[in-house]
Every structure is written in C-alpha cells, then in structure tokens.
Amino acid sequence: MMNSFLQSLQDPHLVASFQRYCGLLLQVEERLAGGCSNSHGNASGSQGPVERGNVFKTSECTNGNRRYKTNGSHQYPYGQDKEDSRGMTGCAVKIVMYLGQASKDIIKWPRPLSPPVVKLETRVDAEYGMPSTHAMAATAISFTFLIATMYRYKYSVAFGLLASTVLSALVSLSRLYTGMHTVLDVICGVLITAVLMALTYPFWNILDNFQLTSPLTPIVAIVMPFFMSYTYPALDHYSPTRGDTTIILGVASGCTVGFWMNYQYGRTYEPTGSLPFEIPSITLEVVSLAIARFLIGILVLVATRQVVKTLSLKVLYAWFDIAGHDMEARKRLEIEVPYKFATYSSIGFNATVIVPLLYQLLELL
Predict the structure, then answer these.
(1) What tens digit of pLDDT does each residue of 64-109 get?
(2) Which of 245, 141, 134, 138 is nearest to 179 (CA)?
(3) Residue 295 lies in a domain
(4) 347 in any annotated domain
(5) Do the domain assignments include residue 241?
(6) Of the candidates 55, 71, 87, which is a domain's last residue?
(7) d(CA 247, CA 123)
(8) Is-contact 304 345, C-beta < 8 A?
(9) Is the dihedral of CA 226, 231, 233, 237 positive or negative?
(10) Which of 57, 121, 206, 308 shows a CA-CA span of 20 to 30 A to 15?
C-alpha cells in the first residue's frame, strides 16, 4: 500500500499534469527514428522553442526523435540583516545543502522522464533528483529566517509563518513546473529539512557562540568544508553537483571566517536599541541606500570572483602542467574543488568584511 503510494508520487505523469495545469502546453511531433536519452539513460525528447511570456529559448538534443513547444512563466525573489545571516549560513547552507547534494549522488534516483515531462532546464540534467535541494534550501532559509527574527523585530509572527510557508511552497512548486523533480523529490526535500532543523535547533546558540569566539574557527571553517568538498561522493560521469556543493561550502566558509573576524574587532553591525527592534519604514532614503549598497556589493563580489578565479586557475594549471585553454580540465577533482573553493570563500569573506567596511567608509550604514 505504502509502496504503491510512494511510486505514484514518483510518477512523471503527475509532474506533467501539474505543468499542464500551470499552462505549460505540450505539442509533440515525431521527427527521427533514433532516440535521445539523458546521462542516466532516461528517454528525453529535444525541446524546440520554449515560449514563456515574451522569452524564447531553444534547446536541441542530438539524436532526438521529438520536438516540443511549450508556454508558461515563472519567477523568484530574496534579502536580510547580518546577525540573522549567521544562522542561515550555518544551518541552511552548510548542513542542509551539503546533505541534500550528497544524498542525490548516493541515492542516484533519476530526474523525471522527458517525455511526458517538459524540461525547462538542461544544465543540471546530468544530476540525480532525490531530494530536491531547491525545496530544502527554500524551506531552511525561509523558516530559519523566521525563527531568527521573530524575537528580534516587531512584526506579526502569523504573517511571518504565512510568508515562510508561501515562499517555500512557491520554490518547491517551481521545481515541478520546470520538470526538474518528481513530487516525491520535493516532499522528501521539505521533510528532511524539517527534521534537520528540529534536531539542530537546540544547538544553534552554542554553535553561533563557538564560531564567533573560538580561536579555532578560521581553521575549522576552512579545513572542514574543503575536506567535505574534496571527498564528495564520486560518480561514473561528470555532474555539476560536486562543483555546486563546493561553491555552497566555499561561500559558507568565507562568511564564517568573516563573521569571526568582525566579532574579534567589534564590528558586528548590530542594530542599536533594545529588543525587539522596530522595522524601519520604507522611505525614499531607505530605498536609495538599499540600491547603493546593492550596486557596490555586486561590483565588489563580481570583481572578487573574476580576480580570484583567474589567479587560482593559473596557479593550478601551472602546478599540474595543464594547457590554459583546456576547459575540460576544470572538471577534474584536483582543479575544480580548489579553484571554486578559493573563489567563493573569497566572495563570502569579502561580502561579510570588505563590503560592510566600504559601506561604513561611504557612510551607507
């Protein structure tokens, strides 16, 4: 009974039905006798022009025997305060995302078959699907943000709970809409995150205090995530999951070191006053400051990415005697993990240390 129910939640036709309900129309026309499959051997049709509002995108499959025409639309948002971001970096990103990404390559359940599902994304088609890390991240970030702020700011907890639920649900449903996951993938992602949050919640303050005060923090924050990235479960084919996981852990590592350094020098950027804090009104000045901070932050982080990525790749290519134009070399373990970790840990560090210092220098705080 339970087994048949779980199998029904894995049925790609259930995802296809949801896509049709959302207005994602599918037209199939036979083309060639040969078939096309994804990296796991699943039947996968080539997708012709994908129409979403006024946006057109074309994706081809070399040996495809079908062509699809779809229409529909989707979008996403985000935002937060320094103190609250520590909890999200530690809980939502480090624990939830690593376990979610690694679970995919251990369980090895393929993504929904296409057809009947329409694939609106192709970059991650080589990845496995169980569980949905988008659903995990959305759930963890939404509800961790709620828990971290409900006693710090004056707002309706009921509204916060509703907003967290809606944001988590929208991201989870978007994974069905794009044809990237089965219903079971999404449900398991949400449930796994709920269990992890419940188990780790009693230790949040302890971990937060440790990462801010312990002299071991910089070492632990760099060595452990790098080791976790380097020992990520190996596959018999290349998948972007290892690189994506390294990026996540790299950013978390850099942020942790940044928070530690800020605390050591008394730069915690805490709001002034007594708890709970008032949420400032949205005025023209507040909006202008937000835009200025956003633009400066983006410029610094884009420059950081470009400089560190270029330098780290040059050093690694020279160390392993690899030609600079060999793009395939970036997929090798000894190249991909170090350059991505160095690049994105630098981004995390600059986002939490250099960017706030610039804001202070430019009187944008």
Answers:
(1) 333 333 333 333 333 344 444 454 445 555 777 788 888 887 888 8
(2) 134
(3) yes
(4) yes
(5) no
(6) 71
(7) 16
(8) no
(9) positive
(10) 57
Strands (E), the chain: 27-30, 47-52, 55-59, 66-71
pLDDT of 154 > 70? The answer is: yes
In this structure, of 164-168, 190-194, 233-237, 262-266, the range with the lowest mean pLDDT score is: 233-237
Mean pLDDT of 284-300: 91
**CA 187 to the chain's CA centroid:** 17
Provide mean pLDDT across the span 354-358.
91
Q: For CA atoms 339, 256, 152, 363, give the dihedral sign.
A: negative
In a domain, 144, yes or no: no
Bridge-based pairing of strands 66-71 and 55-59 is unpaired
Long-range contacts of 161-168 (CB under 8 A, 24+ apart): 167/77, 167/138, 167/142, 168/135, 168/138, 168/139, 168/142, 168/143
Residue span of the structural domain in which 296 resides: 251-267+283-365
Q: Which residues partner with 50 through β-bridges?
A: 57, 70
Whether cis (ω within 30° of 0) applies to the bond prior to 131 is: yes
User: What whole-number distance in Å separates Cα of residue 85 and Cα of residue 141?
Assistant: 9
- Give me the amino acid identity at 242: R
CA–CA dist 277, 268 (Å, integer): 16
CA nearest neighbour of 224 among 206, 194, 249: 249
Residues 6+ apart with CB under 8 A from 272: none
pLDDT-derived band at 206, boundaries 50, 70, 90: confident
**Which residues are part of the catalytic machinery?**
134, 181
Percent of the chain with pLDDT over 70: 78
β-pairing, 66-71 vs 47-52, is: parallel
Per-residue confidence band for 27, with pLDDT thresholds at 50, 70 and 90: low
Q: Could you tell me the pLDDT band of residue 35, with boundaries at 50, 70 and 90?
A: very low
Question: CA-CA distance, 353 to 269, in Å (whole number)?
Answer: 11
Q: Let me know if 340 is exposed, middle or buried by CB neighbors in 10 A (0-12, 13-18, 19+).
A: buried
**Which residue among 71, 91, 119 closes a domain?**
71
